[in-house]
Amino acid sequence: MNQTERNLILELYSKTSDEILNTEIILYSNRALIQGREYHTFNYDEKFDSTNSHTIEYNERENRKKYFGRILKFIQVRENQFCLVKRYLQINKDSFFKKLSIECAKYIDKFFQIVELTDDSFLVDFLNIKRRCIVMNCEGQMVMSMIDDLEEMD
């Protein structure tokens, strides 16, 4: 367990010492079944060219704001299950839209987000995962779209 993971778990359980880390079994996995859908970590998906089961839309516990993230690990502490996620930040679409026709741009704006991956890591409860997303590299920018109906993407 790296220091970031330690800090996030301690913060989640409102602990200031490593007590929970020394007294609880902490399980890790590269795959998880969440709300009937299989998800993978980014490193697991790297083995397969056509897989993108590691990008998600989620909400934080404190608010209902929508976020996007890349799953790095699945973690279970006690009976609680989490994803360690790096957050995607939505960025201004204007520069990307300049490359498209007006007709094309209106559909891109409705169904896609332009994002960049941050260095910020978060623990996301399985219950806060809303759906799977897919990220594509297009013209040097990362374009994301949400996916609602696929059970697994292997």
3D structure, described in words:
The structure is a single chain. The protein is α+β, with helices and mostly antiparallel strands. It has one domain (3-147): Roll (SH3 type barrels), CATH 2.30.30. Helix content is 21%, strand content 46%. The protein is built from five helices and nine strands. The strands form two sheets. The protein has a six-stranded antiparallel β-barrel with strand order 4-5-6-7-9-8. Strand 5 and strand 6 form a beta hairpin. The mean pLDDT is 82.
Uncertain runs are: none
Q: Roughly how much helix do the residues carry, as a percent range?
A: 10-25%
Structural class: alpha+beta
Helices and strands, in order, run as HHEEEHEEEHHEEE
How big is the Rg? 17 Å
From the spread of the alpha carbons, the general shape counts as: elongated
Total of DSSP H or I helical runs spanning 4+ residues: 5
Mean pLDDT: 82
CATH class: Mainly Beta
Q: Please tally the β strands and state the result.
A: 9
* Adjacency order of strands in the biggest sheet: 4-5-6-7-9-8
CATH topology: SH3 type barrels
Characterize the largest beta sheet: strand count, sense, and whether it forms a barrel. 6 strands, antiparallel, barrel
Strand content: over 45%
